[in-house]
C-alpha cells in the first residue's frame, strides 16, 4: 500500500499535495461566492469556473446566500403569475425527445395537431387569465421557426398588441427567430421571448437532432439584443409516448440548486419555475421562492402538460404570505443574462 509519507517524498518541495490543492480550491470557491453575493449590480462576464464554483457550493449555504441576494434586488413576498396558452398545438417538424408536439411521436402520444388559434380566442383566454390574477400572458406555437410565416407573424403581433391593451405583460415562444422578427415583436409590445436551451451542448445531439445548440444560442442572441429575453427553469416532465417518456424526473435538489445559482448569477432577473412544478410539494415550491424564484406558470395547462391551477396557487400564496407581482413592475430592470433551463420546452 502506498503511504502518505512515501507519496510526500516523491513530490518536489513546492508542489502542493492533493489535500492542499483541495483546500485551495475550497477557499477559492468560497471567495467566488462571497464576492458574487456582495454584488450590488448584475454582472455579465461570469466565467465557467466561477459559475461551477457557485453551483457546487453546499446546497444549504447556496440557498441561504441566494436568499440574501434575492432580498437585496426584489421584494421576496412578490411572485409573478404567468399563464401560458398553446396557440398552435402539435404537428411540429422537430424531434425534441421530451415533447409531445412532435409529429414523430404522435402515434405514441395520441396528441392531435390543431390549427393556429384566432386572435379573438387568444384575447378571450387572456381576459380569463387576467380575471384570475395573472399579470403575464404567454403564447407558445409548436413549430421550428418563423421562416416564411409572414401571416402568422402578423397575427401574433396583433395578439401581442391586444394582450398589452389589457395591461398585461406578454411573452411568446415561437421557436427560432431572426433579429428582424425579434425587433418587430418588441415593437408590437412584447415583454419577453422564451427560448430554452433544452439541454447542454454535450447532450444536445442525443436529445434533438433537427437543430443544433448553436442555432439555439443564435436566437437567444437576437432576443437578448432586442431586450426581450426571459429566464425559465424547467425540469423534464416525462410524457408517455415520447423517447424520454420513461425517464426518472430529476431530483428536487438539482432544481433548487439551479434556481439558487441563477439568482446569484443574475440578481435582477425574474426567475420563473416552469415545467416540473406540478409534481413539487408545496414546501419544495416555498424553498424555491425563498432561494430566489419569483415567477410561476399558473392556469389550466402548460402547453400539453398539467399546470397548478389559479385557485390552488392563490391558496398556497395565502398560506406562505406571498403576493402576486403587479404587471410591469420590473420594467425598469430588463430580464437579462443566460436564458436557460434544465431540460424544457420550446
Ligand atoms: S419542443 Fe417545440 S420545437 Fe421541439 S418538438 Fe416540441 S413544439 Fe416542436
Overview of the structural elements:
- The protein has helices at 4-10, 18-37, 48-55, 59-73, 106-109, 119-131, 150-165, 179-188, 204-207, 213-225, 252-265, 282-290, 310-320, and strands spanning 78-88, 136-141, 169-173, 192-193, 231-233, 271-273, 295-297, 301-302, 305-306, 323-324.
- It folds into two domains: 4-57, no CATH class; 78-324, Alpha-Beta Barrel (TIM Barrel), CATH 3.20.20.
- The longest helix has 20 residues, at 18-37.
- By secondary structure, the protein is α/β, with parallel strands linked by helices.
- Residues 92, 94, 96, 99, 101-102, 142, 144, 175, 345-346 line the site of iron/sulfur cluster.
- [2Fe-2S] cluster binds at residues 138, 171, 272.
- Its EC number is 2.8.1.6.
In short:
The chain has 13 helices and ten strands. Helices cover 42% and strands 11% of the residues.
Helices and strands, with pairings:
Layout: H1 4-10, H2 18-37, H3 48-55, H4 59-73, E1 78-88, H5 106-109, H6 119-131, E2 136-141, H7 150-165, E3 169-173, H8 179-188, E4 192-193, H9 204-207, H10 213-225, E5 231-233, H11 252-265, E6 271-273, H12 282-290, E7 295-297, E8 301-302, E9 305-306, H13 310-320, E10 323-324
Parallel strand pairs: 1-2, 1-7, 1-10, 2-3, 3-4, 5-6, 6-7
Antiparallel strand pairs: 8-9
Helix pairs in contact: 4-11, 6-7, 7-8, 8-10
Iron/sulfur cluster is lined by residues 92, 94, 96, 99, 101-102, 142, 144, 175, 345-346.
Cofactor: [2Fe-2S] cluster; [4Fe-4S] cluster
Protein name: biotin synthase
InterPro entries: Aldolase_TIM (IPR013785), BATS_dom (IPR010722), Biotin_synth/BioAB (IPR002684), Biotin_synthase (IPR024177), Elp3/MiaA/NifB-like_rSAM (IPR006638), rSAM (IPR007197), rSAM_sf (IPR058240)
Amino acid at each position: 500500500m502506498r503511504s502518505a509519507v512515501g507519496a510526500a517524498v516523491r513530490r518536489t518541495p513546492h508542489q502542493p499535495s492533493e489535500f492542499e490543492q483541495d483546500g485551495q480550491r475550497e477557499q477559492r470557491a468560497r471567495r467566488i461566492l462571497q464576492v458574487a453575493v456582495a454584488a450590488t449590480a448584475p454582472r455579465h462576464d461570469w466565467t465557467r469556473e466561477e459559475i461551477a464554483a457557485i453551483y457546487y457550493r453546499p446546497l444549504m449555504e447556496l440557498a441561504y446566500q441566494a436568499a440574501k441576494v434575492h432580498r437585496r434586488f426584489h421584494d421576496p413576498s412578490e411572485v409573478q403569475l404567468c399563464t401560458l396558452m398553446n396557440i398552435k398545438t402539435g404537428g411540429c417538424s422537430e424531434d425534441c425527445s421530451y415533447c409531445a408536439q412532435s409529429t414523430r411521436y404522435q402515434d405514441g402520444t395520441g396528441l392531435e395537431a390543431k390549427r393556429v388559434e384566432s386572435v379573438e380566442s387568444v384575447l378571450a383566454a387572456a381576459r380569463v387569465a387576467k380575471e384570475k390574477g395573472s399579470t403575464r400572458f404567454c403564447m407558445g406555437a409548436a413549430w421550428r421557426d418563423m421562416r416564411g410565416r409572414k401571416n402568422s407573424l402578423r397575427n401574433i403581433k396583433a395578439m401581442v398588441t391586444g394582450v398589452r391593451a389589457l395591461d398585461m405583460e406578454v411573452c411568446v415562444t415561437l421557436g427560432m427567430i431572426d433579429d428582424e422578427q425579434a425587433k418587430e415583436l418588441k415593437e408590437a409590445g412584447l415583454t419577453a421571448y422564451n427560448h430554452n436551451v433544452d439541454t447542454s451542448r454535450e447532450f444536445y445531439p442525443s436529445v434533438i437532432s433537427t437543430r443544433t445548440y448553436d442555432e439555439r444560442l443564435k436566437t437567444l442572441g437576437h432576443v437578448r439584443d432586442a431586450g426581450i429575453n426571459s429566464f425559465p427553469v424547467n425540469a423534464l416532465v416525462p410524457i408517455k409516448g415520447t423517447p424520454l417518456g420513461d425517464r426518472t424526473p430529476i431530483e428536487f435538489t438539482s432544481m433548487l440548486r439551479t434556481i439558487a445559482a441563477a439568482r446569484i448569477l443574475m440578481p435582477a432577473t425574474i426567475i420563473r419555475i416552469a415545467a416540473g412544478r406540478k409534481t413539487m410539494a408545496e414546501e419544495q415550491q416555498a424553498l424555491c421562492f425563498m432561494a430566489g424564484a419569483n415567477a410561476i406558470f399558473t392556469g389550466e395547462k402548460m402547453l400539453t402538460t398539467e399546470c397548478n391551477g389559479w385557485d390552488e396557487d392563490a391558496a398556497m400564496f395565502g398560506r406562505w404570505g406571498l403576493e402576486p407581482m403587479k404587471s410591469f413592475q420590473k420594467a425598469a430592470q430588463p430580464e437579462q443574462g443566460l436564458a436557460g433551463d434544465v431540460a424544457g420546452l420550446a
